[in-house]
Amino acid sequence: MNRRNALILLALLVLACLAPFQLAPFHTFQLSMAIVYAIALLGLNLLVGQTGQISLGHGAFLAIGAYSTAVMLDRWDTPHFATLPVAAAVTFVLGLALGVPALRLRGLYLALVTLAIAIFLVPLLKRFESVTGGSMGLTVSKPQPPEWTGLAEDQWLYFLALAVVLASFLFVAGVRRSRVGRALNAIRDHETAAEVMGVRPAHYKTLAFAWSAMLAGVAGCVYTWVIAYVSPDSFATALSITLLAGLVVGGLGSLWGPLLGGAFVMYVPSLAQDINQAAPGMVFGLLLIAVMYVAPTGLAGLAARVSGRLETLVRKGKTHAH
């Protein structure tokens, strides 16, 4: 991470730490959910933005992480913090297992297979009622704030989500600037040329799929902490499609895109509902088209262009002053 990105991250962290003390509990909850989606999009960006593989089933990995956490809390009374590494490990292994056969597929074929996983998962969760609670889902407890913090429950959950997204962001930033990140970019740009240069596409694509699934599972775990309830209908196919749309709107391949995309996934559907309760899908689609027309490279790309123009104007002003 360069100095500029580090300064931006520090400024965002300061604002993020102040936010829950200025917002009402419901708005703090909404911000926590935007963070949950941002964690999932950080993983999806590794797969789609860095490696060039299209996934329409990422909501399924989020659901698996959420249900793994809920089952551990409900059936085995596992401590909340112990559920996070388990949810991460479960989805990493599943991502690894699915990543191997996915190597034979690319483009729309891979997209269709991942979409099929998302479609298949919801009835599967409903079928195993003794474990998953069926259509009724599972209600679990939320992590309670320690007394010494002096925080309300919604503030404590927000800071837990913030800590997890920060760790996820630093992990992804480290991957992007490492040898692995350069290999993933090479595979995305030209797989055959990358293979000629000694990059093993099969190894790196499988790893990207596993990491991507793991971060979605981590997001699912935090989702369960924040909402304290899971049901199959919360993870319908529309969630996977909305996540991909959020990533594209935020900025595909950008380090900051998932953070902006998480806000889009959280706030825009509810805004569409407020505008027209009869046809929120239509309003959401129109808003999506409008954003992509204004910012074809995503909101992160738009912000970079605006920042670049401002810097150019400042330099020209200094030149004229001299």
TrEMBL record:
The molecular function terms of the Gene Ontology recorded here are: branched-chain amino acid transmembrane transporter activity
This protein's major location comes to: membrane
What Pfam families has UniProt attached to this entry? BPD_transp_2
**Top-rank taxon:** Bacteria
Q: Where are the transmembrane segments?
A: 33-49, 56-73, 79-100, 107-125, 156-175, 207-230, 236-269, 281-304
Question: Could you state one GO cellular component term attached to this entry?
Answer: plasma membrane
Protein topology in the membrane? Multi-pass membrane protein
Keyword Metal-binding found: no
| InterPro entries, A to Z | ABC_transp_permease, LivM-like
Residues in a coiled coil are none
State its location(s): Cell membrane
Give the protein name, as stated in the record: Branched-chain amino acid ABC transporter permease
Species annotation:
Nocardia uniformis
